[in-house]
Amino acid sequence: MTSFLWTLLIGLIIGAVAKLIMPGKDPGGCIITMLLGIAGSALGGWLGGLLGLQAVGGLGMFIGGVIGAIILLLIYRMIVGRKK
């Protein structure tokens, strides 16, 4: 249970950092930001593995998660921008 709570907390922090780096109109709320951070971390880890840049703990994983979350924000903005 503790690791699940840590995952949610770190996801919230990563999502918030990604939104701070890329200000703009995005889906809001803590839950969406948390999910963005968690999904961004998964994407960042997967992309890092593909590129051979596997980060082991700490700052490297955090940066990879933020990069993944930024990529997801860019994809969201491209999809929403086409609908308008």
Brief digest:
This protein has 84 residues and is mostly helical. 80% of the residues lie in helices and 0% in strands.
Task: Throw out a few tags for this protein.
84 residues; mainly alpha
Helix and strand arrangement:
Layout: H1 2-21, H2 30-50, H3 58-83
Helix pairs in contact: 1-2, 1-3, 2-3
Using only C-alpha atoms, the radius of gyration works out to 13 Å
What about the largest sheet?
none
Distance between the termini: 41 Å
Contiguous runs where pLDDT drops below 50 for at least 5 residues:
none
Alpha-beta content class: mainly alpha
The strand count comes to: 0
Number of helices: 3
Mean pLDDT: 81
- Portion of residues in beta strands equals under 5%
Shape: globular
Helix content: over 70%
SSE run: HHH
Overview of this structure, please?
The protein is mostly helical and 84 residues long. The chain is built from three helices and no strands. Helix 1 crosses helix 2 and helix 2 crosses helix 3. It is globular, with a radius of gyration of 13 Å. The model has no long low-confidence stretch (mean pLDDT 81).
